[in-house]
Amino acid sequence: MVRRIDVTGADGVRLAAWEFADPPKRREETERASGVLLLHGLMGRASHWAATARWLSERHRAIALDQRGHGRSDKPSGGPFTREAYVADAEAAIEQLGLGPVTLIGHSMGALTAWQLAAKRPDLVRALIICDMRASALGAASQREWADWFRAWPVPFATLADVRKWFGEDDPWVERPTPARGEFFAEVMAESADGWRPVFSRRQMLTSRETWVHDAHWEELAHVQCPTLVVRGLDGELGRAEAQEMVRVLPRGQYAEVTDAGHLAHYDQPEAWRAAIEPFLDGVLTP
After folding, report:
1. Which of 243, 267, 130, 250 is nearest to 185 (CA)?
2. Fewer CB within 10 Å of terminal CB in the chain, N or C?
3. pTM of the prediction?
4. How far apart are CA 117 and CA 112, in angstroms?
């Protein structure tokens, strides 16, 4: 069962959180269950964590958050969509939901938010999993490429099948589109009068991305004191050399990889993803 819980983020932004749990079991065990907060990446939503959250909820209190500008959370026209706002939102969610000390599992942008929060509030975070997020700066060229990619979207899509086909087969900006990628984007579309459009503003997504692509994030990584697992898909955006350097910089870093997976490792290969992270979780969350 999935239950929605609204929390209040920074600047009063309403955030939708989703708890994956069996209610009777949860009433009996909430007090002693360890908390896990899952943070999606840019353009993602909490539902992308469903497969992970369901098996986590068998032993832990698993909650996925729709971050500001995403899913069913508020999308304030004036923002802010800064790193500070995203981190403050996650901090507020942990405190209001009584999850701390929490295990943070983040993908891409959500992973950056997770390690920035772990560096800022070590008292709130007991363990951390980083999925396919680089610590190096990506640069202005990367941001321009994303702006061009967003402009290339054939919006509105006539049907969800068209969404799946374009992102999963035809997207000229991706070297190897996959059916899983098509499903991923189908989950972030909503039907409107003229067809299917993203539930987020592409302008806001670019604004969010602008706040991290020009800077490196190694220093914050070095301040993360909790056990941390760095995970990469073999065909993802995080290269092996950089991932291993991240592990070296982390005071308590470990490394894992998911074969036959790209950037969306947790979504593309959920069983292999589970096999990669479950031993780490067993080690840090077992009483």
Report:
1. 267
2. C
3. 0.96
4. 8
Residues in the chain: 287
Contact 68, 91 (CB under 8 A): no
Determine the pLDDT at residue 27.
47
The amino acid occupying position 225 is Q
User: pLDDT digits over 52-100, tens only?
Assistant: 999 999 999 999 999 999 999 999 999 999 999 999 999 999 999 999 9
pLDDT at 1: 87
Closest C-alpha to 254, from 271, 274, 277, 286: 277
User: Residue 202: pLDDT band by 50, 70, 90 thresholds?
Assistant: very high
